[in-house]
Amino acid sequence: MFEALKPQPADKILSLMEAYRADPRDGKIDLGVGVYKNPQGVTPIMRAVKAAEQRIWEQQETKAYTGLAGDPAYGDAMIALVLADAVPRDQVAAVATPGGTGAVRQAFEMIQRANPQARIFVSDPTWPNHLSILKYLKIETVPYRYFDAETGGVDFNGMMADLDGLRAGDVVLLHGCCHNPTGANLTMPEWQAVVEKLNAVGATPMIDIAYQGFGDGLDADAAATRMVAASVPECLIAASCSKNFGIYRERTGLLMAVGQDRSRHGVTQGMLAFLNRQNFSFPPDHGARVVATILGDEALRADWAAELEEMRLNMLRLREQLAGELRTLSGSDRFGFLAQHRGMFSRLGTTPEKVEALRRDHGVYMVGDSRMNIAGLNADSVPILARAIIDAGV
Ligand code: LMR
Fold first, then answer.
1. Ligand 1 site residues, Cβ closer than 6 angstroms
2. What 3-state class would DSSP assign to 361?
3. What is the pTM of this model?
4. What are the chain's domains?
5. What's the pLDDT tens digit per position in 349-359?
6. Which ligand 1 atom minimizes the distance to the CA of 11?
């Protein structure tokens, strides 16, 4: 049987991670996979996470199953973190999922079951695994223009023109904040214009929010998602705790289905639980319990938010420093967009050949589409990267 299996294409981000590990050079710079690193190059366990884990270890009395939707305290806490009071709680169906990717996968499956004809519009570019999962599920995808390589910002006119191709029942996948891979984000008036277009045609937004707290702050980063949820009849939201709680390997996510028609709530909630049961049964609990413990305790929550804010400001400082170094070396402002971008990532906007040269000649590892993980830098490596970018002729 196994001889019939075909080799699968390597994941671009994960294979880069392996190539970096195998490179023996000192001074190599890892700007690949999206994990936060502190100035010492370590992905730390956040203080509040350690404290919550200790509390759970001391107080937890059973590891028996939770429910198919996960621990209700986790769902409530995450809904409040992402949506605040944008929509009444009884309009939100939600299930815990294995990471944000699990939430994305379950959302796509729910769309497929609800409307097999639905096409999913995705930004060009988007996170490669969005495309990979959609292809795996055989869901038709339609790219919409998003990134303007000239300015390093959003090609909003192109995006709106491409969304003119929407039909009723289609879904538009949007990044709630900190767009991955570009770092370029819509302004609030642009979000509003997108919502008006979707409502006019009868299309549904799906928001992937994996970096809340990494851009402009916890509330600012959720503002667009809250506005959308409050302004459309229905939407799907896939949230991740991997980055903002630093619990990547615990696989902690939440899928929310927001619907104004309360009479559908029970069926929607039941469908989400059913999908969990079919795919993996109960969702992982440890990370979810850590998150619920932190968000439910005033002191832990304040400490977590403070540490997250330090991480955010560190990434912003690195952006400013990199843009400044490049301004000096290039004698121009053409890299100024790096300071405007938000979140972990920025798309440098160069060719795969130059990305390859950066890796070969300078030991700089970024994804082939020139996505850089800004958190992979520190104050010492920024000038080295800036010099390499200029030397590679970017
Ligand atoms: C990334 O984009 O680097 C992260 O979301 C990690 C991943 O799973 O690809």
1. 13, 33-34, 127, 129, 180
2. helix
3. 0.97
4. 11-44+308-391 (3.90.1150.10), 65-296 (3.40.640.10)
5. 999 999 999 99
6. 9
